[in-house]
Each structure stands twice: as structure tokens, then as C-alpha cells.
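WARN retry 2 of 3 for item q-0093 after timeout on previous attempt; input resubmitted unchanged.
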Amino acid sequence: MIVKLVVQVKLLPTPDQAAALQATLRACNEAATWASEVAFSRDVKRNFALRELVYGEVKQRWGLGAQAAQHVIKKTCDAYAVLKANLRAGNLGRPDSKRYRKATAEPVAFRPDGAQPYDDRMLSWRLPERRVSIWTVSGRMKDVAFTASPEQLARLTLHRKGESDLLHRDGMWFLNATCEVPEGELNTSPDGFLGVDLGIVNIATTSDGEVMAGRELNRVRVRERGLRTKLQKKNTPSGKRRLKKRRRMEARRAKDINHKIAKHLVAEAERTGRGIALEDLG
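OK item q-0093 returned
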């Protein structure tokens, strides 16, 4: 069985390279927003049908290559597919709710620095040198540096397959590369089970008596809540930027702590040859 994982590497572009990447994201997202308006007004939200309507204009008007134009159109259709799934699942409220009506009353719009997919024709990797060659609206840039850990490089070398996404966040550039990793053999005859009870005060408590407390995470949340209150009262552009940055920092910290706890539980179960039973410890 194959498991799809994402490896994120940080790009280290020169100022000229960063300007070309920025112009590329801006052009692709402007084109996607225009294609979305056409899809909404004509009620054409399938990839090949929409391509017949907008492909030539997207290439000519924004100077995109053939592959980039196709990815822009596919990204637009995927956005409408996600919207439709959220509406069906009730994630945007009932049909008569304000949030539901707002989501369906106007075309999907894309942020100027929204992520853009790249395939192997638009992006090639030189992993030993930690360089990539990437298409931009200013031409192909063949020597963009990136940084990655030895573990990331090994995974990219062995398992990278499929598209990668170019992202710009908090002034930094990233590539999210898809890797298809074979899943390890499953132990179908575990020697008992490690019971895990999940909570808030204690994130996890095992049947072996081990307690993984959430005190550190909760302390951070209380401190961040106070800082957010102060920044919200200021109501300035710089305050709003700091709010956004701190919110992401807090989310990354919580994700990191939860990930470490999950890895510890899996490693303990694997070491003792047991399965894992969650919540219903009976």
C-alpha cells in the first residue's frame, strides 16, 4: 500500500529570483480568478469544458506557458469542487444562512500569493546540489537554491512523485513536494493493546500509566490569548499582521507537540508488539 506524504523545503532565491517568483504567482492567481469568473457566469466548472473557454486567453493575456495555463484551469475547477463538497457536508451552514449565501453568490477568488501547482515539465530537482530549475513568467530559472534536512533529501530522492506546490508565506518561499512512500507491513496479530485516552488537560494517558500532559501547550495558549487581545485593541495594520503571524506560530507549535506525542505512542506500541486502542479502552 502507498502512502502519500508532503515534504516541504524552503527556497533560498536571490532578490531577482524572488521577484520573478512573485510575478509568477501574481499572474497565475489573477488568471485563475478571471477563469473562475467565467466558470461562475457560464456555470462551467469541469476541467476540459472550462479549458475550451479560457485556455487561449489565459496563455495570451498573462503570458503563461501551456502547462501553467492548464494547472491554472485545473486549480480553478478544484476550488469549485472543494466548495461543492463543503456545501454538501454542511460546513458552510444551512442554505438559508448568511455564510452559505455569501459562498454561493459570487465567484471563487484567489489570493495574489496563493499556491501554484508545478509538474515535472515546469520544475526539476537537482537534489545533491540542493538546486531546482523552475518555470516563471520571466523564463526558466535553472539555479534556485533550497535547504532541506538529510531526512528530507533522502525521502525526496527515493519517493518524490507527482506535483509540487510553490508557496509564499510570511516573506519566505517554499516548495511542497508529493512523495509516495510504501507503507510498512502491518502487524495483524498484536500481542495485546496499548490503551490511549485522549483529553485536553492531559493530551494522552496510556493504559501503562504514562501521562502526556498539555500544561505547556495550555500555558502558551493563555499567553497568546492575552497578546491577541492587546493587538486586537490596537486595530492597526501592523497589529493585524502580527496577529496573523502569531496565530500561525501557535498552530505550528500545537501541531508539533501533538505530532511528537503521536510518534512516541506509535513507537512504544511497535516496540512492545502491541496494537493501539483509542478512547474505548474496553
